[in-house]
Amino acid sequence: MAPPCGNFSTFQESLWPILAAQFPPALLANGWALSHLLTRRRSWHGGSIFSFHLLLTGTFYSLSLPLLVGYYYPPKDWPYGRVLCKLERFFFTSNLYGGIFFVTSISITRFLGVVYPLRSHGRIQTRHVHLLSLGIWVLVLGISAPTLIYSQLEEVGGVRECWGSATPGKLGEFYPYSLSLAGVGCVLPFLINLSCYSLVIRVVFRNPRLDPREKHKVGMLVGTGLVLFAFSYLPYHLFRNLNLGRRLLGAQELDCGVSKVIHSMAQVSKVLVNLNICLQPLLYAALGDKLRSCCRSRRGNGPHQGEVVAQEVYPVAQELLPVAQDQDVVAQELPPVAQELLPMAQELPMVAQELPPVAPVAQELLPVAQELLPVAQELPLVAPRQDDVVAQDHLPVAQEHLPLAQELYPVDQEIHPVAQLPLVAQDPDVVAQELLPVAQEVHSVAQEIHPVSRGGLGVSRDGASTTAPMDSVGWAKTLNHQVQPSKPA
To answer: Residue 416, CB half-sphere, CA atoms under 13 Å: how many?
Structure first.
């Protein structure tokens, strides 16, 4: 079935010289950049790894150009069979979006290295970048796999046409898939690139240590990358989906003039994508490290002193980087302990100032300690106390008098007030007055108990008893005279 607006193959046939001219530069540029990266790169960082994969996508993409040149060569025809038709579309799609994703990864790496150099240094290691690159390849192959189903070889008007999108019968299924590819594979990466490079430009142009020439170089590198992305990938996805949308319209709704312009712009945008493949090796691989060098401060014609020192220190820093990363892990575990010990450490100087100097005192006591050491060694471990020896000698006597003491304890409790008399015995009259009632009671009891006591009881000065009668007062005075302590002569 012939298209409603006729065949647009004439414009495609006019593009084969341009495609043929783009193939050698694309292949040579990507091959040279790969060899340059593999032979002269001593250390691989995130940007160099992403650049390596970007060059791989460019190399594979450029290898599909000869088939496209042969297809567009007039008269337009695909003589290579169905399998190569599907593989050519698959390689074109996968390497197209692989290049877009790796360009976006390079932009993110430059953004982190310029805007957040300290935070990103050491956190993103090479194994992380390799895993991320592997994930990008898996994603790219996954989103490009439907092209193996929709790409078909069909004969229209005696011409074998390799549909890069889908046949008219499956175009309704392919169109949503194409729109999703445009959103995920082009619009979103472009916004990420625009955001990253805008922040890079902001940081670079606010750096007072960079002169205007260095800032201009950074601006040119960043601006060229954004311009290439905007004028190659964006137009291709825009006109490609417009062309697919016009194919879905009916014959009555089509404007053949507009359809021809849209189809021609779609072919031109594909040529711009090929041009981008030729320039990417120069921009992202060969000149990729220039962005770092532009951020170094230079004064005059010679190198800045800080740059000279950095060049000398760089090899040492590379060797110490693994050790520093291990120390960083330990340092992250220490802050809680350090915070607990900090108050104690702050109090130690104050305590040390309050303590007297120990060294002079120790030096003075050392000779005395050396003299006392032999004496201490000769002494027994436990020397018996003299009080303990005396107590052990009197223990049998105390045990013998214990029953008598238990019998006398009640009597002692009764006569305890009288036992205080020697303290006041200095005054006989006072003692006599206090003992008079007691003497009277004792006398009356004695008369009742013993008949002899009626005649009186007398006690001589030398202790001999008398039978002379004595009243109570006289008896008390005599008793007081006996208990009174004798005065010294």
So the answer is: 6
Confidence of residue 183 (pLDDT cuts 50, 70, 90): very high
Number of other residues whose CB lies within 10 A of the CB of residue 196? 22
What would the pLDDT profile of 52-71 be if each residue is shown by its tens digit?
999 999 999 999 899 999 99
DSSP 344-396: HHHHHHHHHHHSPPHHHHHHHHHHHHHHHHHHHHHS-SSPPPHHHHHHHHHHH
Specify whether the backbone of 342 is left (phi greater than 0), alpha (psi in -120 to 50) or beta: alpha
218 burial (CB, 10 Å; 0-12 / 13-18 / 19+) is buried
153 versus 440: which is more confidently predicted? 153
Q: Among 97, 406, 435, 81, which residue's Cα sits nearest to residue 273?
A: 97
Segment 208-250, tens digit of pLDDT: 888 888 888 888 888 888 998 999 899 999 999 999 998 888 7
Q: Is 356 exposed, middle or buried (0-12, 13-18, 19+ CB in 10 A)?
A: exposed
Helix orientation angle between 46-63 and 16-40, rounded to the nearest 10 degrees:
150
CB burial string 425-456: b at 16+ within 10 A, e below: eeeeeebbeebeeebeebbeeeeeeeeeeeeb
Confidence category of residue 280, pLDDT binned at 50, 70, 90: confident
257's tokens: 């003039």
Which pair of tokens denotes residue 421? 């008399």
Say what angle helices 188-205 and 82-115 make with each other, to 10 degrees. Answer: 30
Question: Would you call 12 exposed, middle or buried from its count of C-beta atoms within 10 A (0-12, 13-18, 19+)?
Answer: buried
- Cα 114 to Cα 107, 109, 130, distances in angstroms: 11, 9, 21
216 Cβ partners below 8 Å, 6+ apart? Answer: none
Rounded distance, CA 148 to CA 90, Å?
6
Residue 459 has φ and ψ, to the nearest 5°, of -130, 120
* d(C-alpha 32, C-alpha 12), whole Å: 30
Residue 54's Cβ-count burial label (10 Å; 0-12, 13-18, 19+) is: buried
Domains of the chain are 9-297+314-331 (1.20.1070.10), 423-483 (no CATH)
**Is the link from the previous residue into 403 a cis peptide, with omega within 30 of 0?**
no
